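wait is this the right file?? whatever heres the structure
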């Protein structure tokens, strides 16, 4: 009977330890889930703030660019894109402005809103290519970008796409 009693106590102790471990793991899983949810909520809030700040920036930026146009010039804009880049931990805004005319200028950039400075920029002059009959343009980098790289359209696009996905 004494051995049976000891065996019973050992079984009860093992069940208690197993149950405790199970409940502890459940608590850890619940805490990890809470932290994941809090991180997702924080990222969602950053994205919402980024969109609000980006809309304000884009409106001001586009008004500034439009005010620099000559009366005979026409312009076209892409809708701005906003993205909170988790790698850089900042809000990015992607804009593209095109001035149409005999000579066409395209200014594309990705701006870091925390510093209000371009992260990437492409300012190019597009002129009809006299050697082609398909209406294609010859691209020249504009000299209006000083102190930072001015990228061609083909170099800018994949880099900007990557920044807006991270």
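ok assuming it is, sequence goes like this
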């Amino acid at each position: 009977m004494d051995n049976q009693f000891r065996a019973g106590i050992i079984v009860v102790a093992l069940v208690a330890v197993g149950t405790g471990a199970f409940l502890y793991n459940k608590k850890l899983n619940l805490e990890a889930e809470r932290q994941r949810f809090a991180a997702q909520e924080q990222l969602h809030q950053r994205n919402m703030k980024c969109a609000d700040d980006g809309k304000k920036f884009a409106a001001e930026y586009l008004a500034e660019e439009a005010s620099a146009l000559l009366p005979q010039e026409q312009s076209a804009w892409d809708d701005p894109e906003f993205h909170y880049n988790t790698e850089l931990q900042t809000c990015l805004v992607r804009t593209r402005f095109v001035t149409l005319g005999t000579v066409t200028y395209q200014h594309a950039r990705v701006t870091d809103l925390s510093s209000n400075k371009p992260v990437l920029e492409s300012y190019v002059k597009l002129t009809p290519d006299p050697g082609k009959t398909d209406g294609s343009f010859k691209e020249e980098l504009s000299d209006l970008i000083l102190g930072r790289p001015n990228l061609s359209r083909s170099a800018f696009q994949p880099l900007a796409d990557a920044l807006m996905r991270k």
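Residues 1-166 form one domain. so i think its the right one actually
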